Structures are given as C-alpha cells and as structure tokens.
UniProtKB/TrEMBL annotation:
Organism from which the protein derives: Pseudoalteromonas ruthenica
Name the record gives this protein: Type II secretion system protein F
Keywords: Cell inner membrane, Cell membrane, Membrane, Transmembrane, Transmembrane helix, Transport
Taxonomic superkingdom: Bacteria
Keyword check for Membrane: yes
Membrane topology listed for this record: Multi-pass membrane protein
The Type II secretion system protein GspF domain, residue ranges: 75-198, 280-401
Top-level taxonomy: Bacteria, Pseudomonadati, Pseudomonadota, Gammaproteobacteria, Alteromonadales
Length: 409
C-alpha cells in the first residue's frame, strides 16, 4: 500500500540524456515514477542516461502553490466547457495546463495528459492522483467514458464541484463568526486584565479600605494572568493539539463531535441544511450519470460531511437494497425534513428522481446562504453585546471602590 501511494505521488525528476543527433541534454520533468519519466523522454526522442527524483527543499518550502479543491473545480469546469465545444480531450488538457498559473496544477495536468496520450482512459489517469480526485469523481468520469457522453458528464461533475465548494465556503463562514466572537472577547479581556487592572490596583492600595468582593475577584484574576498567562496559553495549545490528534484517530470521538455540533443553536441548523444539500446534490449528480441508486447512496454517504447523516444514508442504502422505496427509508431515518421526503416520493413515482433531488439541493443551498447572511447580521450586534458586558463588568469592578469611597465622604 505504501509503495502504491508513493508511486501515485506526482514528483519532479532531474534527467540527463542524449538526443537522436548525439547531443547531450538535461532538464526536469514531472511524473509519478522514474520508469514513466524515462518512457516520456523516449517518446520525445531522448535516450535517458540518468534520471533521479529532485530533492525537496528543507521544510518543504518549494515556493509552489498547493493544489486546492477550487483549482480542481476550475479545471473541471474548463475541461467541461472545452469538451462541449468539440475540443479533443488531449488537446483540452494540454491547453488548460499551458494556461494555468499554478505550477503544481500545470505539472499535475501534464502528467495526466501524458497518461491519456499513452492510451490510458482518463478515469484511470485520474485515479493515480487520489489526493485530488476522489472515488466519486473518478467513478463519474468512468461512467461518462463508458456511455460515450464524457462532455455531458464533465458538465455535471463541474456543476457538482462548484456547488460543493460554494457550500463549503458558506459553512466556513458560518463557523467563523462564533469563533471570532470568542477570540475577540478573549483578547480584549486579557489586555484589560494584564495591563489596565494593575493600574487601578495601585490606586486602591492607597485607599487603606476593604475592597468589594467583585473587585477583589477581578484583581485576583488579573494577578493570576500576569504571573501565569503562559500556563493558560500552554494548556490551550496542548489541549488543542491533543484534541486534534484524538479527533483524527478516534472514530467514536469524531461521531460524537458531529452529533454535538448538529445540536448547537443556530450553527447546528445551518449544518443540518448543508448536509441535506450535500446529500441531494451528490445523489442527483451520480444517479443522473447512470450510477445505480445503491452505489449512488454509497457516494452520498461519503459526501454528507457528518457522521449522523452518513449512518442514516447507509441505513437508507440497506433498506433500498432490500427493495423498499427510498422515500420510505428516508422517513424511517427520522432525520430528513418532510418536504424533502415528499419531493423524493414524487420523483420516484414520476421517474424523475434526479431532477427532484437537484431541486431539493438548490432549495437547501439557498437556505444555507440565507442562514449564513442572517447569522452574520445577528452576530454583529452580539459581538458588541459580549464585549460590552465584559468591558462594562471590568469597569464596574474597578470603579466600585471609588463609588463606595464617595458615598462614605
């Protein structure tokens, strides 16, 4: 397995060879293995005498941009457009590679193009790069190759990738605001406790009177922050790292976090709608591409993005495999809204399930968009309110002794 993953990785190779005229040449070429690079050189009329993998810079600082999901979505849309315009597959890949400003994307597409030129199906070439093209993507391309409708399939895949990226961006935006509130509140409170409160403490020491309990509490917290702020930072850093590692390795923890986050006020509602949109969009795309419903449900489970929906979709798959209607299985899952179930039922009865699922996806993607916009409008005054309570509380704590002194006088 490790060797296969290593072979599938796209690397840069340095080569030295001799041309057909006996001239010594050297250069760099990208590929997945030394054997493939040698084969590419021979096709160019060069006899390789030395080929070696180019050493990576220290700490991996190569200066090249990483290939993002947006890059893959853009490539998919460009390829779909060119194929629909009648451009040949090989020519389209070469044109997109030449026009790419990201060197990593350029190298990836050239490697795929070489595979296709060598007679490999496009789906097979894509499967050699699982980091960028998942099983769902490759399966859809394979179905397009088998049906002879690769251009239309790529158009569907491009739409799917664009919608998926747009939805992901909205979810990140929804998650950003609560984190921003907590972060800003923590920073402002820490600055006040470490730098402002000590100034008041020096003034209070000259009073010679007993301070209110609230003021003493704030001063105690301030003294702790001044002396042990590094402990708080260390604990947060270590705690975050441990949780991240445990979340990555422990499936039960990931599932529990997914369940908990769906119950979170406001944000949980957005994530529920996003999961339904993902389910409907994935199922619509795969089913319309000719993938059997049971296999399409498998893909939808993997693309749901949440353990609760993943398990529910797998249960639906089991019931559909047993011969039950999908809308009936969805109702038994107790997780999908009635409107979605009714539209699926209509789609099954009319034979237009993919169209109905596409409409469901569009509706819920719009709801996610509206909810995120509403969340941003809601949290702007909430940020002000939280900061007002924190700062106001600290100010009251610092001025209470002055108010008491004034009442005594």
């Amino acid at each position: 397995m490790a060797k296969q993953q290593q072979a599938n990785q796209l690397d840069t190779f340095q080569w030295v060879g001799v041309s057909t005229r006996g001239k010594k040449l050297e250069g760099e070429l990208t590929g997945t293995s030394i054997a493939l690079v040698k084969a590419q050189l021979r096709k160019q009329g060069i006899t390789p005498s030395k080929v070696k993998r180019k050493p990576k810079p220290l700490f991996g600082l190569s200066g090249e941009k990483k290939i993002s999901a947006k890059d893959i979505a853009m490539f998919t849309r460009q390829l779909a457009t060119m194929l629909l315009a009648g451009v040949s597959l090989v020519q389209a890949i070469d044109m997109i590679a030449d026009g790419s400003e990201n060197k990593s994307v350029k190298n990836l597409l050239r490697s795929i193009g070489e595979e296709v030129k060598a007679g490999q199906p496009l789906s097979t070439a894509l499967r050699k790069h699982p980091k960028y093209f998942d099983d769902l993507y490759c399966d859809l391309v394979a179905s397009g190759e088998q049906s002879g409708a690769l251009d239309r399939i790529f158009d569907r895949v491009a739409l799917y990738k664009e919608k998926a990226e747009a939805l992901k961006s909205k979810i990140k935006k929804a998650m950003f605001y609560p984190v921003a509130v907590i972060f800003v509140a923590a920073i402002v409170t820490s600055i006040l406790l470490i730098f402002v409160v000590p100034q008041f403490k020096e003034i209070f020491e000259g009073f010679g009177a007993e301070l209110p309990a609230f003021t003493l509490l704030v001063i105690s917290i301030s003294e702790f922050m001044q002396a042990y702020w590094w402990i708080a930072v260390l604990v947060l850093g270590i705690g975050g790292y441990v949780f991240k590692q445990a979340h990555r390795r422990n499936k039960q923890l990931r599932d529990n976090v997914d369940k908990l986050i769906l119950k979170t006020p406001i944000v949980g509602s957005i994530l529920n709608k996003a999961a339904v949109a993902r389910y409907a969009r994935t199922l619509s795309t795969t089913f319309a591409a000719g993938v059997p419903l049971v296999d399409a449900l498998d893909s939808a489970a993997g693309a749901s993005g949440n353990a609760v929906y993943r398990d529910a979709i797998l249960d639906i798959k089991a019931e559909v495999s047993s011969g039950n209607p999908m809308n009936w299985a969805m109702r038994n899952s107790n997780i999908f809204p009635d409107m979605v179930i009714q539209m699926v039922a209509i789609g099954e009865e009319s034979g237009s399930l993919d169209d109905m699922l596409a409409k469901v996806a569009t509706i819920y993607e719009q709801e996610v968009d509206d909810a995120v916009d509403g969340l941003s409008s809601l949290l702007e005054p909430l940020i002000m309110a939280v900061l007002g309570v924190l700062i106001g509380g600290l100010i009251i704590a610092m001025y209470l002794p002055i108010f008491q002194l004034g009442s005594v006088i």
